[in-house]
Amino acid sequence: MDKIIINNLHIFAYHGVNEEEKINGQNFYLDIICGVDLTAACLTDSLDDTVSYAKIIKTVKRVFPAQKDDLIERAARRTADAILDEFDKVRKVKITLRKPEAPINADFDYVAVEITVERN
User: What is the mean pLDDT of residues 46-65?
Assistant: First the structure.
């Protein structure tokens, strides 16, 4: 399966189990891989035969911060589901959601979850 890849999309949002995370918010970074058959787009050179990465980003920027989820697992899944709901050509979505400012008393680059959802 071909892929459309959006790497390191930055979104400020209010996800977390701690109350201060829901009040102050923090930075999140998403890697999004959409499985799409790009055969027709390669032949026609037409945007109608692919999925616009700009439109995927617009959807993610609308959906991801729309709720204040306790778990980043839920935020990632809601976002993946929205991509599948809005783009018929997308057959599979994998989202890696990184949370570099998680309130953990440790030295780390980020914590993350990876969610993969396939269309039935």
Answer: 98
Whether the CB-CB separation of 29 and 44 falls below 8 Å is answered with no
For residues 9 and 32, the answer to whether their CB atoms sit within 8 Å is: yes
Q: Which residues contact 40 (CB under 8 A, 6 or more apart)?
A: 46, 49, 50
Put residue 16 in one of left, alpha, beta given phi > 0 → left and psi -120 to 50 → alpha. left
Rounded CA separation 35/89 (Å): 9
Model confidence pTM above 0.70: yes
Other beta carbons within 10 Å of 41: 18
Strand, helix or coil at 26? strand
Residues with active-site annotation: 99
Query: Is pLDDT above 90 for 120?
Result: no
Instruction: Decide: residue 60, CB within 10 A, 0-12 exposed, 13-18 middle, 19+ buried.
Output: buried
